Amino acid sequence: MIGIAQRLARAGARSSVAPLWNLRSPALLTVRTATMMRRGREPAEDVEGGELDIEFTSASLGRQRGGRLQKIDELETIHIGVQTSSSLYPVPISEKTATVLSEKMGIKTLFPVQVESFEPVMEGKDIIARAKTGTGKTLSFVLPILEKLRRHDSLLGSAEEPQHHRRHNQQTHGPRVLVLAPTRELARQVARVFVDVADSGKLLGDYSKGRNYPHKPAPGAYTTLLVQGGTSMEPQIRALTFTPAPTVVVGTPGRVLDLTEKGFMDLSRLETFVLDEADYMLDIGFSQDIEAILTRVKEHRSRRSERSIVPLQTLLFSATLPSWIQEVAANFLRPSPDRTILDITEGGVVHAANLEELSRSTSQSGPRTARGISHVAAAVPKLKNVPTVGQEMMWDRFLFSREGRESGEWMKRVVGCIPWAVERYAMPAGNTGPGRTIIFTERKIYVDLIVEALQYHYAKHGDGKNEIVAKGLHGDIRQNTRDSIMQGFRQGKVHIMVATDVAARGLDIPATNLVLQTHPPRDTDSFVHRSGRTARAGATGTSLVFYDPDHIKSFAKSATDPSVEPTDLLRLEKEAGMHFERRVAHDVPASIVTGRVSYTPCVVKGLDAQTLGRLVHMPMFARALETALPGSTGPTQVNPATEVVESVRDVVIVSPNVDTEGEALPEIKAAVFDVPTNTFDVFVAALQPLLPGSASVETIDGNVIPENWQLQGPKSFKSDQRQDWRNNRNRGYGYTSQQGFGQRRFEMGMGHARHQGGRFGNPRDNFPGERSDFGRERRGFPAERNRSWGPEKSERNDWREFASGRMDRGRSEERGYRDERRRTDWSPRTGGPAREPLRQDQRHSWGKGGHKQRE
Ligand SMILES: Nc1ncnc2c1ncn2[C@@H]1O[C@H](COP(=O)(O)OP(=O)(O)OP(=O)(O)O)[C@@H](O)[C@H]1O
């Protein structure tokens, strides 16, 4: 008869046995084992779960090997809760970890990738593993890594501890495990799993809740340090130099490399090196950093005696392992038999013999996306009206930028359909709340635009009770804001997160109902990862891709005619092994981007092409022109710099709202601007100083708008509105957001604030028309550069230098600044005259508070 301990150990309960021997009274134990023995009933009997009273005799216990096990003298009855190996933790984990998993993390069973990777990691093998999104890859390396540390450390000092391991542990100070992840958010998430499983309290280096300097860890605790960019390095350095050093470091490659190169991170004690999202990390972009880090690891380790070194174990995990990875991964992994290649598919676990086999199996392994995802492709309808983004400056700027001309129309169409998608797919039946949606888009500017439009839409059309909050996440957002947005999304305070691919990999937000992509993604792997943000850990969810219905034609054709290039969606279906349900999206009735704006036509006669050429560079005019030309070139297709100017030489541009089609004003070179009524004043105020003397501005009825029109108080812009402007209040006049003029103008930036009617500065000074930006001309700034879309920053700085008397004559002549107009009394700080002319000795004190001393 073999002993209980051996049997338990064989069945996978090694670590659970030790406390058993110390029991002096009946106790309920949860032992992860399949085979138990009852007294007097030999041989052993397989138990299928449930609880079992077992009596052990002192004789049977006493036979157990190992001096550390206490011998029990009397007969004891021990109640052991038994569960079969297939249902609960079929791997030998310590009692402590088992308790954390089941009680704190609510994990009752292990997922296949976790079971399969456990033993190889424990044995110190290298692993490259692929498993679908949301199948628990993080735990599949965290669990065995911590267990391995525990097991090794439990042997510390005992005869069983391997010699080289003992020396390895004694000698140095740095982390024993290094995990690299591509994004800061993912690094934080992985680090948290280490902290949870190790039950080590605080995550070091997590500053999201204020400063968190390293505390003295409990003896034997496996502490984890988060080393991410975008936050202060100093506390990370302090944590690294602390004794004992953090056991695990999880970070992004840039910061890890930085700390290593500056000598703060000693990697000579490193035992395990993990690349989460391995394919992404080894792709161009990150691979250089990774190689540099590994070179450092080798350097550090080589300082130590050969015999003392524990072999470095490398673990690579991802949901996608493209074929190119075979060559790259071969440089990182040791050859067989020190390496295991795992592919966890729907059909089961494939132990590939080599990397080639793994990449071959990619195409044969069924759908590559997680099982619970429903895929929808929604055709985005064409714009029914001509929405002009009236209320938000960001859209203005975008639509007349180069990108805007390329993709502006598509973005407007897409944005108009998002509320439909959210309502339909992110609000599950019976669920009163808005659910969670992640919207992926290609560029940061799209993120900002979508967020702005959604915030506007939900503020306007929300029911006031279930307010839907949308926030953006991309690389230009400050780290603490990114962290709080992520936290808000996890907690359900943010309902829609609009993100670039920074959120595409690894992020685990369990209750995400909908993943929406504004364009079919560039490659299938991106699609797999983006879609994988929903339907995690066996849940269900929807992944929706917006596409252009023009592609429908080629959809149908390409199905029958192989010579037709498959569209993006067909390619995705083929390569990802899934099928899209086709739908037509609905855009919101009143365009989300604008609502319907009312227009006032404004006829400008006597325009020459040169003036018009200048006008069209200003977003405000360009937009008006665009609106005026829907029939000919389409609302966003206008290239203002060329097409419009070319055509204005011969034809009259007519507003679509005016039923004249060029005939009513046959001989006159004129432009009819359809100006949104609420910005009419700003428009005219900005327009008039730019026109040549021969030009006139008229309403469509032929009433000439006098030159000082805006000063007399236009009908559409009443005095109380002007007062609002002065008082920084917004009542939705179109040129500001809800945040109020002052703040908005600050956000807008200088150039934009200017063309909204005035100088950047105190908004009360700048009511359009009362004081314009063009006053600078009076101060001697060359007229041709004096435009509000005007001079480049460097030129502006030059001008300031000149105006404040700091520029020498040679340079000022070179730039054509008129020296006789040099104004030494002009304050570069306030843009107005200083109180009294500066003395020579005071001039140099600008910027050092000299002007204050004079006051
Ligand atoms: N054994 C388990 N039982 C229940 N839930 C689990 C188990 N293992 C992991 N999970 C949960 O599954 C979710 C997904 O896990 P994880 O983030 O590790 O997936 P992943 O495979 O790394 O996904 P991705 O490829 O997107 O990075 C997490 O919320 C995690 O808590």
TrEMBL record:
Q: Respond yes or no to whether keyword Hydrolase is given for this record.
A: yes
Which domain of life does the UniProt lineage start with? Eukaryota
The record places domain Helicase C-terminal at 421-596
Determine if Manganese is one of this entry's keywords: no
Q: Which GO terms describe its molecular function?
A: ATP binding; hydrolase activity; RNA binding; RNA helicase activity
Q: Where are the transmembrane segments?
A: none
Region of interest: Disordered: 710-740, 753-855
Q: Where is the signal peptide?
A: none
Q: Which SUPFAM superfamilies match?
A: P-loop containing nucleoside triphosphate hydrolases
According to its UniProt record, this protein's enzyme class is hydrolase
Alphabetic keyword roster: ATP-binding, Helicase, Hydrolase, Nucleotide-binding, RNA-binding
Instruction: Quote the cellular component terms of the Gene Ontology held in the record.
Output: cytosol
Q: What is this protein called?
A: RNA helicase
Q: Which organism is it from?
A: Gonapodya prolifera (strain JEL478) (Monoblepharis prolifera)
Q: Where is the composition biased (Basic and acidic residues)?
A: 717-727, 767-826
The segment(s) forming the Helicase ATP-binding domain are 118-339
Biased composition regions of type Basic residues, renumbered to the chain: 845-855
Instruction: Return the EC number.
Output: 3.6.4.13
SMART domains from the entry? DEXDc, HELICc
Which reaction is this enzyme known to catalyze? ATP + H2O = ADP + phosphate + H(+)
